[in-house]
Amino acid sequence: MKVLFITSGLLVALVAFPLLTLVNFTQGIEEKTVSQRQDPELPVRLLIPAINVNARIQDVGVALNGEMEVPNNAIDVGWFKIGSRPGEVGSAVVAGHIDGESGEVGVFANLYKLKEGDLLYIEDDKGTSITFVVRKKLIFDPGYADEVFSRNDGAHLNLITCDGLWDGVKKSYSKRLVVFSA
After folding, report:
1. Distance between CA 46 and CA 77 in Å, rounded?
2. CA dist., res. 146 & res. 160, Å (int)
3. Does the pLDDT of residue 110 top 50, yes or no?
4. CB of 60 within 8 A of CB of 78?
5. What does pLDDT average to over the chain?
6. Weakest mean pLDDT among 49-53, 82-86, 166-170
7. Using H for helix, E for strand and C for coil, what is the string for 148-180?
């Protein structure tokens, strides 16, 4: 069994905030090369007009410790490159910080304000924009996250950030906010 953790923190080496645990995520997933993908363009920018987000997208994978890599600053977002690309069938997952290590406002500080029907846009490296519509928001305890990563009934974009109370001992927030869109 493979266990992966999604984290939200500036650098995993500096601060690690486990977001959600993925159990058996990689089981049955084949690595696809760009030539095998129907839409090989890479996501480069996330736009969320409702909350004034215009963020560069970093590609993130899995760190040696099994945790999902995170954006290396509080203003960019990280696309989980092991999963689906935005616009492909499956769940594309993008993580962003709610705040930075020094208390600065993070890119997803206002993610909780999104509501059903709000529009999200992903721009790719060829200049094409893909539109997603917010379907719902859920709060999770850190733990199993199959719903976040494993949908295969269409193209989904799921945004994730920390929520809840800060625990200074664990250096982590108590909850995770996920915004689901399609």
Report:
1. 8
2. 13
3. yes
4. yes
5. 80
6. 166-170
7. HHCCCCCEEEEEEEEEEEEECCCCEEEEEEEEE
Instruction: Specify the DSSP element, H or E, that contains 147.
Output: helix 146-149
Would you state the torsion angle of the CA atoms of residues 129, 181, 92, 164, taken in this order, to the nearest 10 degrees? 120
Would you state the pLDDT for residue 29?
A: 35
And the tokens for 9?
């923190």
pLDDT of residue 144: 52
| Residue 10: HSE in the Cβ half-sphere, 13 Å Cα cutoff | 12
Domains annotated for the chain, with CATH where assigned, are 3-29+40-181 (2.40.260.10)
Q: Which residues of 132-170 are buried (b: 16+ CB within 10 A; e: fewer)?
A: bebeebeebebeebeebbbbeeebbbbbbbbbbeeeeee
The burial class, CB within 10 Å (0-12 / 13-18 / 19+), for 29 is middle
Predicted pLDDT at 64: 82
**DSSP structure class, residue 9:** S
Chain centroid to Cα 85, Å, comes to 12
